[in-house]
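Appendix C reproduces, verbatim, an entry submitted by the partner laboratory led by Prof. M.T., so that reviewers can inspect both the input and the predicted structure.
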Amino acid sequence: MSSNGGGEPQNASSVTADSPKPTIEPIHLPTIEEIRGQDIWNNCAVRSVVSGVMGGGLGLLMGLFFGALENPLLHEELTARKQIAFQAKMMAQRSWSSCKAFAVMGLIFSASECVVEKVRAKHDITNTVVAGCTTGGAISARAGPRAACAGCAGFAAFSVVIEKFMERHS
């Protein structure tokens, strides 16, 4: 008779019975509404317009914030009411300008990233680099080719830094 120190016979099935069994999760198939939502969001035009609108909203808020921080030379002859009206007008102009700039930036970046992703059929950081270069070059193209190249390189580098910070691609 063989026995271990506790008097129980040693059995291989008793070792596996004590170990926890992994739970198997059921497969979740997407519903028709989820599939339609994904199809809509995968459309580059929809994605670009949404990014442009959200960029415009962000630019509007940033313009209001930075416009409020500006301290223009206040004229002594203006009353307090006229100074407030003047400051509000300047904030509105600054916020509208930022709104347009951020909307264009978001639209160009999102459109170029989506198109590059569709053409390459890959989702990686190269798409971000190309989209950043396209956006920076397009925004600074009015200043000439040298500025467009600098804008391309700068915006591509900034896009990579943000992408690495957000860790979207593995």
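The two ends are 58 Å apart (CA to CA). Additional entries are available on request from the coordinating office.
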